[in-house]
TrEMBL record:
Name of the coding gene: Lbr
Record field: compositional bias (Basic residues): 76-95
Source organism of the structure: Galbula dea
Enzyme class, UniProt record, top EC level: oxidoreductase
Protein known as: Delta(14)-sterol reductase LBR
A Pfam family the protein falls into: LBR_tudor
Residue ranges of domain Tudor in the record: 4-62
Main localization of the protein described in the UniProt heading: cytoplasm
GO terms of molecular function: Delta14-sterol reductase activity; DNA binding
Biased composition (Basic and acidic residues): 99-110, 124-139
């Protein structure tokens, strides 16, 4: 068992996790089981560090003195040679032509020296061709790299014995060189770290298959809902003629809807806020006017209904609308990938920069693709698909009344429309909260999000309403009250948990959040261990699942098809939870392990 090296209260130099920077810290305690020192930084941050990440103050002072002084005898001798008192005064006075000749000779000597150092050898040529290199070749390449970063310092060494400049100026030049070299090394490391190393969704093969599986799943669900007996045993459903799946008029209506929402997005109404800092430290600006867009859309739909526009047209051509949305999302994804090829390294998504075309195309290569100030990902995340979901539900309600000759929609249809309307309105009212989600901060905008926002959300999330049109289900008022209560519980958990997280991320020092306790991390952020986030690790997912169940219950239990959304949602959230766990463990390290010990349950309390 190793002996303890640093004592409590001792001032040392501690390395900041994930960097090469050392800061002065104070040792507060030592854990003999894990052999970790708890140290406290000057700003009050406490972290657990290994002994290898701690240095004594004296060692840093010694290094500093060595780096700041270099061969005093050599400097003194160079000064004595350059200013020899025995040299006649006439020797120091030169004509201007002699001085120019002397400078030309010095430049020529310097250039020859530089060329000799920079001349590529056969070994270096072999290195760039991908062949293995020996230690000697490493030394040569190191010399070339040094020469590239330090063009005038070699000149200074050649002319060291002839320099008449003060030592302070030389020292200043060396400091500038060191800063430049450190900056170049840091940039090289950052570029290498931006590459996506761990592939999700089954890697290249998995993402390639998902690009076919996702559209096939949507079309299968819609075809099954049209059947008289939508049992999963009736597979495959009868396929429609291919020419019936495409209609130019339907595609035109979809384009009109998309660009109408884009027009609402560009209106100068609503506040402009800053997003979270990017890897470059820059913050993007976003206009928060999604709720206004919803109000304008509701007014436009009201005008259409007033002039007796048949909104159930959406129900009659539902499959064609899904095909049109899928075709548009594919075209948008191709455009996004081509545009991302012109993006800088800092603008690429951490999850979509693998270097594999199919994988990056699926997950999204660029993090925040924009056309001017128009943010494509942020716009598609809430506007066309989410508001379109509500419009589709309304079309299904009107279709049910027309097909079944009802003066009022069924209680089941009212519940489904009401619950999902609440969910959409909440998302638009709290639009600013989406800026802290992984969709915005981590995931790129590619086929996965484009298809999900424009196809999956409006056409799969409205599955319950679409099912009820062809398979009406009667429920009693007590059952409706119980389902409503269940939805309210799920919504309360979902909204209060998200509000706690978003407010804490925005301003941890807010006096309104004084009751919340957190664990400090090396990134400067805290992990909440009280409130909903001290109950389970992902309470917002728990609320999502409860609400999804409440949306499906009005469809009864005759078929499992309306519960596809619940099954899908559980699988999706478990996948997201696993991804969040992996991401947080890498990001927060020991702090995340301490958090998991404090909060052992992931989504379901006392179960999982």
């Amino acid at each position: 068992m190793p002996n303890r090296r640093f004592a409590d209260g001792e001032m040392v130099m501690g390395r900041w996790p994930g960097s090469v920077l050392y800061y002065e810290v104070q040792v507060t305690s030592y854990d003999e089981a894990s052999h970790l020192y708890t140290v406290k930084y000057k700003d009050g941050t406490e972290l657990a560090l290994k002994e290898s990440d701690i240095r004594t103050l004296s060692s840093f002072k010694h290094r500093k003195s060595q780096s700041s002084s270099s061969s005093p005898s050599r400097r003194s001798s160079s000064r004595s040679r350059s200013r020899s008192p025995g040299r006649p005064a006439k020797g120091r006075r030169r004509s201007s032509s002699q001085s120019r000749e002397h400078k030309d000779d010095r430049k020529k000597t310097i250039q020859e020296t530089n060329l000799a150092l920079m001349k590529p050898s056969e070994n270096n040529n072999r290195r760039y061709n991908g062949e293995p290199e020996s230690t000697e070749r490493n030394d040569t390449s190191h010399m070339i790299l040094e020469q590239k970063w330090k063009p005038d310092l070699e000149t200074e060494h050649v002319l060291e014995h002839y320099s008449l400049r003060p030592r302070k100026e030389e020292k200043r030049k060396e400091e500038r060189y060191s800063e430049k070299k450190g900056f170049e090394i840091t940039k090289t490391i950052e570029k290498a770290s931006l590459k996506t190393k761990e592939l999700e969704f089954g890697g290249r093969i998995g993402t390639f298959m998902l690009m076919f599986l996702l559209p096939a799943t949507v079309f299968y669900l819609l075809l099954m809902c049209k059947q008289d007996d939508p049992s999963l045993m009736n597979f495959p459903p009868p396929l429609p003629a291919l020419d019936s799946l495409w209609e130019a008029r339907v595609f035109g209506v979809f384009l009109l809807w998309f660009f109408l929402q884009a027009l609402f997005y560009l209106l100068p109404i609503g506040k402009v806020v800053e997003g979270l800092p990017l890897s470059s430290g820059r913050r993007l600006h976003y206009r928060i006017n999604g709720f206004y867009a919803f109000i304008l859309t509701a007014a436009a739909i009201g005008i259409l209904l007033y002039f007796q526009f048949e909104l159930h047209y959406v129900y009659d051509h539902f499959m064609q609308f899904a095909v049109a949305a899928a075709a548009f999302s594919l075209g948008l994804s191709i455009y996004l990938y081509i545009q991302s090829l012109r993006a800088t390294e800092e603008e690429l998504a951490p999850s979509g920069n693998s270097g594999y075309l199919i994988y990056d195309f699926f997950t999204g290569h660029e993090l925040n693709p924009r056309i001017g100030s128009f943010d494509l990902k942020y716009f598609c995340e809430l506007r066309p698909g989410l508001i379109g979901w509500v419009v589709i539900n309304l079309a299904m309600l009107l279709a049910e009344m027309k097909i079944h000759n009802q003066s009022m929609p069924s209680l089941s249809m009212i519940l489904v429309n009401s619950f999902q309307l609440l969910y959409v309105v909440d998302a638009l009212w709290n639009e600013e909260a989406i800026l802290t989600t992984m969709d915005i901060t981590h995931d790129g905008f590619g086929f996965m999000l484009a298809f999900g926002d424009l196809v999956w959300v409006p056409f799969v999330y409205s599955l319950q309403a679409f099912y009820l049109v062809g398979h009406p289900t009667a429920i009693s008022w007590p059952v409706a009250a119980a389902i409503t209560l269940l939805n309210c519980v799920g919504y309360y958990i979902f909204r209060s948990a998200n509000s706690q997280k978003n407010n804490f991320r925005r301003n941890p020092a807010d006096p309104k959040l004084a009751y919340l306790k957190s664990i400090p991390t090396a990134t400067g952020k805290g992990l909440l261990i009280t409130g909903w986030w001290g109950f389970v690790r992902h309470p917002n997912y728990l609320g999502d699942i409860i609400m999804a169940l409440a949306w499906s219950l009005p469809c009864g239990f005759n078929h499992i098809l309306p519960y596809f959304y619940v099954i899908y949602f559980i699988c999706l959230l478990i996948h997201r939870e696993a991804r969040d766990e992996h991401h947080c463990k890498q990001k927060y390290g020991l702090a995340w392990e301490r958090y998991c010990q404090r909060v052992p349950y992931r989504i379901f309390p006392y179960i999982y």
